[in-house]
Structure formats: structure tokens, C-alpha cells
Amino acid sequence: MATPAQLGLQNATSPIMEELIAFHDHALMIIFLISSLVLYIMSLMLTTKLTHTSTMNAQEIEMIWTILPAIILIMIALPSLRILYMTDEFIKPYLTLKAIGHQWYWSYEYSDYEDLAFDSYIMPTYFLEPGEFRLLEVDNRTTLPMEADIRMLVSSHDVLHSWAVPSLGVKTDAIPGRLNQIMLASMRPGLFYGQCSEICGSNHSFMPIVLEFIYFQDFEVWASYLYIVSL
């Protein structure tokens, strides 16, 4: 999760987020080089009196400053399109989880398990344990297996919401009457936090998302326990 005075992105826990961070660094380096070149040329023009009259009508320099930006745009567009297609690639999932946005909480349904569903509300401040985070903790965490391809179906019951977990590199709108689909996976166990990223009303900032990734065997035990309790 984010830390105070953090300048960069959150640590990646999914392959998609690792690709996004690499593309961010790639694009940022190009921007830095272009900005440095422009700043150098501006300072050169302001500090020197040397001029070259033949540059007023030079075809070579015009070709350079036309072709070079096109090459730079291609260098940015190709990896961007690659990641875009990676995020839209859907393979056979191990598990399907449905998230439904409400004002102002989330409901989760495990489609592969019978009657395994619950609501996830923000944890009131006076119920927080030491070490838990205010405005980010929930009463029912969403438990998922790590190193598994998980299909998320996201919808809404009332208004527009947005289901987003930055460390996983996933964000999709929850729209009433429509199912949006995304794939997610975590390469390590742990707690990962997110929030509703669409202004959905007065309590928009009180819709946290907490995903708890655990090992396969522990997830099966957890799902079996909840099934027995619900009988």
C-alpha cells in the first residue's frame, strides 16, 4: 500500500502491474530526455549571440524534427499497446468472483461455490485493532488464492462505482445493469488495499477494498469453513 511522502507507484504484486511500472519508467525517461533537450536549447538561445542564417531555410533540420518525434511516439505506443492487449487477455480462470457496488459498500459473490457471498463494509474507527488502517479496513476481507488466475465480474446496484486495487494494477467501472470483466492474480500472499475510484455520493470515500491472498490449501479450508457455517 502507499506510504507517507511516497513519490513512486505502489510495489507490484501482479505481472500486469510490473509491466505498467516498467512502461511508466520507460515513458518517464523519454519525457526527461525531451525536457532536458528543450531546456538546453532555450538556455542556449538566451545566453548566446551566435546565429546561423542558413538554418532559416534548412530542409535537413525540418526532416529531423518531423521524423524524430514520430519515432519517439512509436517507441511509446508499441509497449503501451502490448500492455493494453495483455490486460484484455482472458484465460481459463481458477476462480470467478463477482463484486457489486452499493451506496456505500461492496458485495462479493464466489460464483464457483454455492451460497458463498457476503457484504464488505468499512470498519468504524472505534473497532480498529492496533496496526490497522483507518478508512481502509473492512469488516469482511475478500480472501483469494495466490498464484491463480481470478476472473472479476464487476457491476453496480445503484450508481456508478469503480473497483480499483493499485498494487494489482486493476481498475474497472461498476455500472448498473452491466457486467465488466477483468483478470487479476497475485504472486505473493498478503493484504492489498483499494478504494472506490468513482465519485458515487456523499460517502464515496468510505468504500474501501481489502483483498487477502493466501495459499491454495488455506483458501480451500477457508471456503469449506464458510460453507459449513452457512448451512
Automatic annotation (TrEMBL):
Per its UniProt entry, which superkingdom is the organism in?
Eukaryota
Per UniProt, residues of the Cytochrome oxidase subunit II transmembrane region profile domain are 1-91
Biological process GO terms, please?
ATP synthesis coupled electron transport
Q: Which GO terms describe its molecular function?
A: copper ion binding; cytochrome-c oxidase activity; oxidoreductase activity
Q: Where found in the cell?
A: Mitochondrion inner membrane
Cite the SUPFAM superfamilies for this sequence.
Cupredoxins, Cytochrome c oxidase subunit II-like, transmembrane region
Keyword Acetylation (UniProt)? no
Per its UniProt record, the required cofactor names are: Cu cation
Give TM regions.
21-43, 63-85
| Catalytic activity, reaction form | 4 Fe(II)-[cytochrome c] + O2 + 8 H(+)(in) = 4 Fe(III)-[cytochrome c] + 2 H2O + 4 H(+)(out)
Q: Which UniProt keywords apply?
A: Copper, Electron transport, Magnesium, Membrane, Metal-binding, Mitochondrion, Mitochondrion inner membrane, Respiratory chain, Translocase, Transmembrane, Transmembrane helix, Transport
Gene3D superfamilies noted in UniProt: 1.10.287.90, Cupredoxins - blue copper proteins (2.60.40.420)
Matching InterPro entries, A to Z? CcO_II (IPR045187), CcO_II-like_C (IPR002429), CcO_II_C (IPR034210), Copper_CuA (IPR001505), Cupredoxin (IPR008972), Cyt_c_oxidase_su2 (IPR014222), Cyt_c_oxidase_su2_TM_dom (IPR011759), Cyt_c_oxidase_su2_TM_sf (IPR036257)
Primary location group: mitochondrion
Every Cytochrome oxidase subunit II copper A binding domain range: 92-225
Note accompanying the cofactor annotation: Binds a copper A center.
Example GO CC term: the record gives: mitochondrial inner membrane
> Which membrane topology describes this protein?
Multi-pass membrane protein
Q: Is Electron transport one of the keywords?
A: yes
In the record, the note on similarity to other proteins reads: Belongs to the cytochrome c oxidase subunit 2 family.
Role played = Component of the cytochrome c oxidase, the last enzyme in the mitochondrial electron transport chain which drives oxidative phosphorylation. The respiratory chain contains 3 multisubunit complexes succinate dehydrogenase (complex II, CII), ubiquinol-cytochrome c oxidoreductase (cytochrome b-c1 complex, complex III, CIII) and cytochrome c oxidase (complex IV, CIV), that cooperate to transfer electrons derived from NADH and succinate to molecular oxygen, creating an electrochemical gradient over the inner membrane that drives transmembrane transport and the ATP synthase.
What is this protein's name? Cytochrome c oxidase subunit 2
> Which organism's genome codes for this protein?
Saimiri sciureus (Common squirrel monkey)
Name of the coding gene: CO2
